[in-house]
UniProtKB/TrEMBL annotation:
<dbReference type="Pfam" id="PF01182">
    <property type="entry name" value="Glucosamine_iso"/>
</dbReference>
<dbReference type="GO" id="GO:0006044">
    <property type="term" value="P:N-acetylglucosamine metabolic process"/>
</dbReference>
<keyword id="KW-0119">Carbohydrate metabolism</keyword>
<keyword id="KW-0378">Hydrolase</keyword>
<feature type="domain" description="Glucosamine/galactosamine-6-phosphate isomerase">
    <location>
        <begin position="25"/>
        <end position="223"/>
    </location>
</feature>
<dbReference type="InterPro" id="IPR006148">
    <property type="entry name" value="Glc/Gal-6P_isomerase"/>
</dbReference>
<dbReference type="InterPro" id="IPR052960">
    <property type="entry name" value="GlcN6P_deaminase-like"/>
</dbReference>
<dbReference type="GO" id="GO:0004342">
    <property type="term" value="F:glucosamine-6-phosphate deaminase activity"/>
</dbReference>
<dbReference type="InterPro" id="IPR004547">
    <property type="entry name" value="Glucosamine6P_isomerase"/>
</dbReference>
<dbReference type="InterPro" id="IPR037171">
    <property type="entry name" value="NagB/RpiA_transferase-like"/>
</dbReference>
<dbReference type="InterPro" id="IPR018321">
    <property type="entry name" value="Glucosamine6P_isomerase_CS"/>
</dbReference>
<dbReference type="GO" id="GO:0005975">
    <property type="term" value="P:carbohydrate metabolic process"/>
</dbReference>
<protein>
    <submittedName>
        <fullName>Glucosamine-6-phosphate deaminase</fullName>
        <ecNumber>3.5.99.6</ecNumber>
    </submittedName>
</protein>
Amino acid sequence: MKFIIEKDYASMSRVAANILLGEMYRDRRVNLAITAGSTPVKMYEYLVEDVKGKDYLTNVHYYNFDEIPVIGENGYGVTMGNLDKLYFSPAAISAEQIHVLDENNYLQQDERIKDDGGLDLILLGIGADGHYCGNLPGTTKFENMTSQVSVDATPGMRDILIEEVGGDASKCPDYYVTMGPASVMQSKRILLFATGAKKAAIIRQAFFGPVTNDVPSSLLQTHPNITILLDEAAAAEIQDLL
């Protein structure tokens, strides 16, 4: 594991953008699975400036790794809708470079990525409960590939999804789809980033504690090429271990 600790959120976001750019500039097809949410907002601001109008970056192909099947105004589910607002539309990424995972094709996701040459990098956040992608405690197991997960698989999941769909319980689906732990571990490289003191405890538990399904992200410590990028607040509880 490689740890990178930056002073604050902005500098951490700049480094995250730089790492993705390093992959993008390879002289071949590059496959990236990227995350939505709040942590990457600043990173995408940097990336939009870095990649917009750069025709030589059409070799980069993008994949989402989970999806909540509630179609928004832009025709995407929740995850892809957020990625479109944060990055794809502002950066003018062409449709040919975007490979959507949804409730209709999730059973083909792993084979499709394999046929495309595999993921060069997957960009992950981490929840305070140790989840990543849609792999929450009590939902998927380490051996699972891309799968459908019931919203009732774990307590509190329905409330989380209601929040994701704007607080309207009537829009909450009965399931979501996600790349499972085994799918994520097939990526050639993993970049996980976290910001803020509220993530400090889980960073220590996930990367310096036992590997257990109770903390889904603990599996990631076994990946041969993982970088954990943190600001100082998120790294507060591991300084004595580095």
